[in-house]
Specification:
MetI-like, mainly alpha, globular
Length: about 240
């Protein structure tokens, strides 16, 4: 079966399951696919909704950029320096296991209300996974690459950009995919706790008002965005692996 046909079959099965659950639990608990798409279309037709999307995307892009470049850079440093990596790995794993919600008062104290707190909360979710994936990718890198760079007497910068990065890029993409989803989740959670604008704020407002169709519409929008971006990264990853 072609891949596109398989994808369409899965989507159709999900729609049937969604409609079946709607009929089972009722419209007061779960909006139907038609109601959800109709509500999303009406929301997208308003300028206020686009302002909230823009607010969320601003915070997400900033948080993901910090998580991406900071995580890769830190992962390379800890991966190259074996002792530092062995010391840092259990510390990072322990820190990441702490529920981020309990740290939110500290985030608010340091960054205050606004976009800075949402960015910080997103970075808290996305930075460590990308760091760990990058560090472990270097550890699993073939030793011949390092020996070759030593024989060629490459500088640390040349070694990082011409030897290490190309060798570990496929593994890093896996970490980036995970970090992407977790950073988006962190930003949305940040907006749900203390924000007056953004998709997370709209979700909280809809939950408080019992607006099931709005909740489902925003969830559908976020799902389509996340799945599309993840599919693009998977496609890029397959091309790297093929090469």
């Amino acid at each position: 079966m072609p891949r596109s046909a398989g994808t369409l079959l899965v989507l159709f099965a999900l729609l049937v399951l969604w409609q079946g659950l709607h009929l089972l639990v009722g419209a007061s608990s779960l909006a139907s696919p038609v109601q959800t798409v109709t509500k999303l279309a009406s929301l997208l037709a308003t300028g206020e909704f686009w302002l909230n999307i823009s607010e969320t995307m601003r915070a997400f892009v900033a948080a993901f950029a910090i998580s991406l470049f900071g995580g890769i850079a830190l992962g390379i440093v800890l991966g190259v320096r074996k002792l530092a990596g062995n010391v840092a790995e259990p510390i990072l794993t322990t820190l990441y296991s702490i529920p981020k919600v309990v740290l939110y008062p500290l985030v608010l104290l340091c960054f205050g209300l606004g976009i800075s707190a949402k960015i910080a909360f997103g970075v808290m979710h996305g930075l460590i996974p990308i760091t760990l994936f990058s560090m472990n990718a270097i550890r699993q890198m073939k030793p011949v690459y390092r020996r070759t760079s030593q024989v060629m007497r490459l500088s640390p910068a040349q070694n990082a950009f011409t030897v290490i990065m190309p060798a570990i890029l496929p593994e890093i993409i896996s970490g980036v995919r995970l970090g992407f989803s977790l950073t988006l989740l962190g930003v949305l959670i940040g907006e749900m706790f203390a924000s007056q604008r953004g998709l997370g704020f709209l979700l909280t407002s809809a939950i408080n008002l019992g607006q099931i169709d709005t909740i489902m519409a925003i969830a559908l929008l976020l799902t389509v965005f996340a799945v599309t971006c993840n599919a693009l990264m998977m496609r890029f990853d397959r091309r790297l692996t093929h090469r």
